[in-house]
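Query form — protein ChsH2 C-terminal OB-fold domain-containing protein

QUESTION: What is the three-dimensional structure of this chain?
INPUT:
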Amino acid sequence: MTQAVFGSADLLPIPITTDHDSAPFWAGCAQRKLLVALQADGTPVHPPVLVGTEDGPVRWVEAAGTATLHTWTVVRHPVDPAFPAPYAVVLVALTDFPSVRFLGTLDAETELEAGMPMRVRWEERSGVTIPQWEPDR
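ANSWER: The structure tokens for ChsH2 C-terminal OB-fold domain-containing protein are given below.
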């Protein structure tokens, strides 16, 4: 089980995992599967919206769990007690669904380079499994 980059897990935000649109995503995360919602024509819908799409309901597929680092920033001044600075916020694009991007956090000392390969790592927060990202060296 991977620990959070940050201090007390009691302060970290926990996502709502029972939302109608995103519940299948979080159920996949609980099984350490990174799921992506696709419209009937194969176009990713992210964040997922299960109702109101022109092409009808979405289907869920498992992504490879690999990505490319799109960009990042290092936060040096604390903005929330749950996230003591410094830390890096990363934005990655999935390799198999490049239009789908995820945010994550890393130790500020992690050496990062635009375009570098990344892979999912799973973080446990109060019983919720959250996808995070790390360099895939």
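ADDITIONAL NOTE: The mean pLDDT is 89.
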